[in-house]
Amino acid sequence: xxxxxxxxxxxxxxxxxxxxxxxxxxxxxxxxxxxxxxxxxxxxxxxxxxxxxxxxxxxxxxxxxxxxxxxxxxxxxxxxxxxxxxxxxxxxxxxxxxxxxxxxxxxxxxxxxxxxxxxxxxxxxxxxxxxxxxxxxxxxxxxxxxxxxxxxxxxxxxxxxxxxxxxxxxxxxxxxxxxxxxxxxxxxxxxxxxxxxxxxxxxxxxxxxxx
Length: 211
Description:
- The protein is mainly beta.
- The protein is built from two helices and twelve strands.
- The protein is 8% helix and 40% strand.
- Strand 3 and strand 4 (34-39) form a beta hairpin.
- It is globular, with a radius of gyration of 17 Å.
């Protein structure tokens, strides 16, 4: 979580949310765990110079963070699966950012966009595009199959997070809105099991666009 705003006690009742344009799927895996996924589909533009696909593990659900994220007042945190699934729509269209030194967040240094998110088991994974032409240093630092990519992780950014018990040693987040994510060194993230890598664009089917 590296960056959060509006942490407070859980209030009675949850405001309903409407599904965004895109799709949300509930799939039950072999182990009986249900997977929730949501994505916005973009038209395929072959060879787009400013779209570099990425994917990563943003955080873990129902698992305490390895260390306290900033904004949590020294508390480790647990994002519940229910809260993560309810907040999936808020991830779509949010930006990814990075900070010089790769050790934190800089919400004004937006270098990409999240287009899909899913909760699969204990992992909340995301995918999207980096603005490769605008930020050439990103690709230079994070090579898809290079050693540097194995060192990179992610950290989420939240607003309006509700804590079940502010007096608890480990804070349980029961509701939140995602406002973005950061790409950073895995060792600097609150969860050391996060990951981030860029993908080589693959040929896809052409999409007819109505004029």
